[in-house]
């Protein structure tokens, strides 16, 4: 029997309240559970001590028996110092996808072309100006 330490939703519509329970993975989210080990009230401020209550001893017991916490419960237990959750890092997820990379490359190329054109335009009048001054000097002499 695979066990999970998870949240079971209670409370009224738009007023969530969760119980931290030990349940078989096959049972429904709000259905049958083995033991209630705490509560979670997301409506309270994060610094409120009543926001999350967990019986640490029972959580340790169930973890030693082999129950696995869900992601949210793992955060709670990690904050309590009972469970260490794995650091999650997926650098591939934040990379732009193929179409976005094509757009970025096109924008980069357009920017380089604009910079090259501006540089060429800046150099062209500079070359013509000294050439225009040379005939004027010859006319004065």
Question: What's the arrangement of secondary structure elements?
Answer:
Layout: E1 3-12, E2 15-24, E3 35-40, E4 52-54, H1 56-65, E5 68-69, H2 71-80, H3 91-94, H4 98-140
Parallel strand pairs: 1-5
Antiparallel strand pairs: 1-2, 2-3, 3-4
Keywords: Ribonucleoprotein, Ribosomal protein
Biased composition (Low complexity): 115-141
Family: Belongs to the bacterial ribosomal protein bS16 family.
What's the gist of this structure?
With 141 residues, the protein is an alpha+beta fold.
Task: Explain the overall architecture.
- The protein is α+β, with helices and mostly antiparallel strands and 141 residues long.
- It has 2 domains: 78 residues, Ribosomal protein S16 (S16 Ribosomal Protein, Chain: A), CATH 3.30.1320.10; 42 residues.
- The protein is 48% helix and 22% strand.
- It contains 4 helices and 5 strands; from the N terminus they run ββββαβααα.
- Strands 4-3-2-1-5 form a 5-stranded mixed β-sheet.
- Strand 1 and strand 2 form a beta hairpin.
- The mean pLDDT is 86.
């Amino acid at each position: 029997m695979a066990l999970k330490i998870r949240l079971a939703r209670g409370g009224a519509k738009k007023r969530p309240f969760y119980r931290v329970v030990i349940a078989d993975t096959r049972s429904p989210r709000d259905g049958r559970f083995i033991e209630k080990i705490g509560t979670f009230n997301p409506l309270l401020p994060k610094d409120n001590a009543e926001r999350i209550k967990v019986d640490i001893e029972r959580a340790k017991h169930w973890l030693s028996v082999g129950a696995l916490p869900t992601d949210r419960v793992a955060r709670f237990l990690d904050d309590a110092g009972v469970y260490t959750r794995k650091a999650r890092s997926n650098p591939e997820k934040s990379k732009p996808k193929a179409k976005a990379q094509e757009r970025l490359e096109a924008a980069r190329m357009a920017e380089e072309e604009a910079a090259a054109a501006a540089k060429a335009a800046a150099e062209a009048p500079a070359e013509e100006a000294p050439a225009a001054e040379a005939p004027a000097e010859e006319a004065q002499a």
